Amino acid sequence: MTQKTLEAIKYKRGDLQVLDQLRLPFETVYEAVPNTVQGHHVIKTMKVRGAPAIAIVAALSLAVELNALLTTSPTTLDTNDKVATFVNEKLEYLKTSRPTAVNLFEASERLSNLVRDNGDKSGPELASIVITEAEEMLIKDVQDNKNIGKFGCEFILANANSDSVRVLTHCNTGSLATAGWGTALGIVRDLNLSGKLDHCYCTETRPYNQGSRLTAYELVYENIPSTLICDSMASALLKLKNVKAIIVGADRVAANGDTANKIGTYQLAITAAYHNVMFIVAAPLTTIDMKTLSGDAIVIEERAGVEVTSTKGRTATVEVAAPGIGVWNPAFDVVPASLITAIVTNKGVITKNKGEDFFRIDEFIKNNQ
Ligand SMILES: CSC[C@@H](O)[C@@H](O)C(=O)COP(=O)(O)O
């Protein structure tokens, strides 16, 4: 059965449009992204957000820029060297948009390696190879998410000891955060399609409200039985509502399984452990960063204090804090591997060995190439 999901990224060769997520859930407005300057802008300002979507929009913004130059200014791309320099400079620039989600850095490295490995091609040929690779990222991400949904749904049902489950999710990990379907929210979709989802709770996810604005929007859009809670209600929910699993996405998973995700994820993992509730991280393998050995080395983005002192409503942004108060606004936190039950990837589910408090992700990758 196919199910229509929201589309954060609309692309055909030479034309990239992104859904402006700052205007959701009240207005559906697409914005053209004709080049990397605009790509950088929509990522930095969070018109597009979510680890996979950030990487795909960055790569496609480069693809549309290259595509346009091939016709409007062919001499700028007429040698291999010119294209290689152009692509690498643009990738370095795009990487400065947001620091925590590794997918952007992984995509950049992949495109850069492609350029290095195609030193024998003409300029236009090399540009075309880069464009095609960026386009494939968009297609592959949806398939990866479908696999995550299936694996995660099976794992949760196999371990829940009940016929239908209630789950809690945090931030937005759905179609809006990816090329389609979603990671953690993809699992929720699969649970719902299998008829085994009793209810999905979602947090508001202050300060940016990805939960109340975006996840709630996706849940309502698809008629998934769901309820919104404030972030501060999570422990009470686990105590009183028989939730079987908390399912979250990831911005970067370190080699030992420590996971950076939206601020508030860490406290959810602590309360899940206390209440003996499964804590599931859902992410494609592109979100795993084997070069980062543990969560301590993950750079956490800090954003402007105004996101905490104000809230964006339907018609205006309103101040909600006493003027003059100091603000700390880390956008992400790190969940230690010891608190994570399983990491659900597009290649399968990674669990810990008995008695160990870290994941052997290197072994999993070796066995699932
Ligand atoms: C599939 S999205 C996974 C994560 O990127 C998501 O949970 C998250 O933390 C997004 O943060 P954001 O700041 O909205 O980009």
UniProtKB/TrEMBL annotation:
One of its GO terms (cellular component) is cytoplasm. This is Methylthioribose-1-phosphate isomerase. Gene3D superfamilies: translation initiation factor eif-2b, domain 1 (1.20.120.420), Translation initiation factor eif-2b, domain 2 (3.40.50.10470). It catalyses: 5-(methylsulfanyl)-alpha-D-ribose 1-phosphate = 5-(methylsulfanyl)-D-ribulose 1-phosphate. It comes from Boothiomyces macroporosus. InterPro entries: IF-2B-related, IF-M1Pi, IF_2B-like_C, Initiation_fac_2B_a/b/d, M1Pi_N, NagB/RpiA_transferase-like. Its EC number is 5.3.1.23. PANTHER family: METHYLTHIORIBOSE-1-PHOSPHATE ISOMERASE (PTHR43475). The lineage of its organism: Eukaryota, Fungi, Fungi incertae sedis, Chytridiomycota, Chytridiomycota incertae sedis. GO terms for biological process: L-methionine salvage from methylthioadenosine.
